[in-house]
Write a structure and sequence with these properties.
Blueprint lengths: L7 E4 L14 H8 L4 E5 L6 H14 L3 E4 L6 H7 L3 E3 L4 H10 L3 H9 L4 E4 L1 H4 L28 E6 L13 H11 L4 E5 L2 E6 L2 E6 L3 E4 L6 E3 L6 H4 L2
Parallel strand pairs: 1-5, 2-3, 2-4, 4-5, 6-7
Antiparallel strand pairs: 1-8, 7-10, 8-9, 10-11
């Protein structure tokens, strides 16, 4: 299948200040899922998978969707192959990717998304949609076999992007500093999604959704400010 078949929604964060879990993304999620009835949830980024799955199931039930957690499935690969859509939640990206390797779910997810399965990722779930997890903000609390991730999109995600604060007295690296370091060693573009921002890929077009915008980083180029409604393909896919 061509890239135009892919339907992907990458959400920077699950909870936006002043609202509850996925409230800020509900309208976009509903519009994105269209006629899907059931979702497969991947809770591997958090330690307590039962509690995480219960929270996600309750939230999606209020949106009118049935949610099954892959950790409770007798056959996880079969569950991937039989769902209407997949949602990978946030948490620690290293733990998430390590478990995706252990459960051998990377390739089944890749194949289904390549054939049009709607994919929603939030935070860590957005990180693993890129070629690698090298631009995650998380500590490596576990060691996956590789940093190589799903590769659903050809660009890196840096969720929860925070702009440098000119009034801060903190002398450590900013998120921008870390992305620049990544680009010193790697040529893959990076989408720094501020909290509340989302990237939606559909019909071969990548559109910035949500609020607060994003910054796009490319090797040897100045960062580019992007606003809601703008198309990102020229900066991220070429």
């Amino acid at each position: 299948m061509s890239e135009a078949a892919k339907r992907i929604l990458l959400i920077s964060n699950s909870t936006l200040h002043g609202s509850s879990y996925l409230d800020h993304a509900e309208n976009e999620i509903r519009d994105f899922l269209k006629d899907a009835k059931s979702l497969l949830f991947v809770p591997y980024a958090l330690f307590d998978r039962d509690e995480y799955a219960a929270m996600a199931a309750e939230r999606f039930q209020r949106m009118g969707y049935e949610l099954l957690s892959v950790h409770a499935a007798a056959d996880p690969i079969r569950a991937v192959n039989n769902t209407d859509a997949i949602f990978i939640g946030g948490g620690n990206t290293f733990r998430l990717l390590k478990t995706l390797y252990e459960t051998q779910l990377l390739e089944p997810i890749r194949q289904r998304v390549a054939n049009g399965l709607p994919y929603i990722g939030s935070s860590a779930g957005s990180n693993v949609a890129g070629p690698t997890i090298k631009t995650t903000n998380d500590m490596p609390i576990v060691q996956p076999p590789s940093f190589d991730a799903l590769g659903l999109v050809p660009f890196q995600i840096s969720p929860h992007y925070l702009d440098p604060d000119p009034n801060s007295t903190h002398m450590g690296e900013t998120q921008e500093d870390r992305i620049v370091e990544f680009l010193e060693e790697n040529g893959t573009p990076v989408a720094g999604l501020r909290e509340g921002a989302m990237a939606r890929i559909e019909n071969g077009v990548t559109t910035l959704k949500g609020v607060n915008g994003a910054r796009i980083f490319r090797r040897n180029e100045a960062p580019v400010e992007m606003h809601t409604g703008m198309q990102l393909d020229e900066l991220l896919w070429r």
